[in-house]
Specification:
By secondary structure, the chain is mainly alpha-helical. It is built from 2 helices and no strands.
Length: about 40
Amino acid sequence: MRPKRGVTRLNRDLKKSRESGKPSRVFTQPMGESGMDP
């Protein structure tokens, strides 16, 4: 599966949120991590 447009940006936000230890808005969306992780 090839990531859609904006997925790379979401991944960057996820990494930042993990490093900062704060939950990101992405987690609240139905996609969640499972939708992005291979």
